[in-house]
Design brief:
With about 260 residues, the protein is α/β, with parallel strands linked by helices. The protein has one domain: 2-Layer Sandwich (Nucleotidyltransferase, domain 5), CATH 3.30.420. Helix content is about 50%, strand content about 15%. The chain is globular and about 60 Å long. The two termini are about 30 Å apart. The model has no long low-confidence stretch (mean pLDDT about 95).
Length: about 260
């Protein structure tokens, strides 16, 4: 079975913002400021933009396939949004993985839908619901209650909005590092400063938190025994150690050993 945990990072879609709000001629920064201001007026305080006004700047992947575990961010520092989205859906076409996310049903996937629509990106396997493959009829990527996509936040909350919790807090509760390097609210600022690499690194650590929480979830529901769970954690540690990248080394240093052996926590 292939498991693909993922996370996206976004910035304001200033091009669409200019069209919708008559902001032609403004810089990207000034356009975003105007979009945030309008959002504050519409919501009574929140600057969080509607999902259709989010532009994807990074997609990170943690893939468990066969005996391998891999962690990477799609594309390069210079890749276009269309390229990284296309690569994401190509991975689904190739591996038909079980997707794992934290709030992916409420944020990541809808944003991907809108951006794929914008760029004209085909993703037939992702959108399959049983018309051509009967196996997808009762287990597809689109249903909230199917396992082909597990939104951990939604599932652990019992599908109740009042039960939802932040990834950062649940990760730290269990002995994982949680947020490292920045916060989602700082991504636009980092982007304007040319910090694409920092954004990609941050996205990778969020993806790691998500994948490791998924392992604990699999332990909790009996699909992993404790020794196998510890082995899977060791597999991830080995990959991160071999990669020897500063942001992954920081993650390793903050990753408590008690997470790997919950019976001793």
């Amino acid at each position: 079975m292939n498991v693909l945990a993922f996370d996206i990072e976004t910035i304001p879609d200033v091009e669409t913002g200019r069209k919708l709000y008559g902001l032609i001629g403004l810089s990207d920064d000034d356009t975003a400021r105007a979009m945030f201001q309008k959002r504050r007026q519409d919501t009574g305080g929140s600057e969080f933009l509607p999902l259709h006004l989010q532009r994807i700047t990074a997609i990170s992947i943690a893939l468990r396939s066969g005996e391998d575990f891999k962690l990477w961010t799609l594309g390069t520092l210079d890749s276009s949004e269309a390229e990284i989205i296309n690569r994401f859906y190509e991975g689904i076409e190739k591996y038909t993985p079980d997707l794992v996310s934290w709030n992916g049903g409420g944020f990541d996937l809808p944003v991907l839908h809108y951006r794929a629509l914008l760029h004209g990106i085909a993703a037939p396997r992702y959108w399959e619901t049983g018309e051509t493959e009967t196996g997808f009829r009762y287990n597809n990527y689109l249903s909230r209650f199917h396992w082909r996509h597990t939104d951990l936040m939604d599932v652990l909350a019992g599908f109740q909005p009042r039960g939802a919790a932040p990834l950062d807090e649940i990760a730290q509760m269990l002995g994982l590092p949680g947020k490292l390097g920045m916060h989602g609210s700082k991504v636009w600022e980092a982007y304007l400063d040319g910090g694409i690499e920092r954004i990609r690194n941050y996205c990778e650590t969020d993806t790691l938190n998500t994948y490791l929480l998924y392992l604990r979830f699999e332990l909790m529901r009996g699909r992993l025994q404790r020794d196998r769970f510890s082995d899977e954690c060791a597999r991830v540690r080995k990959v991160l150690t071999h990669a020897n990248k500063p942001h992954l080394n920081e993650f390793m240093a903050a990753w408590a050993q008690t997470f790997d052996h919950p019976q001793s926590a």
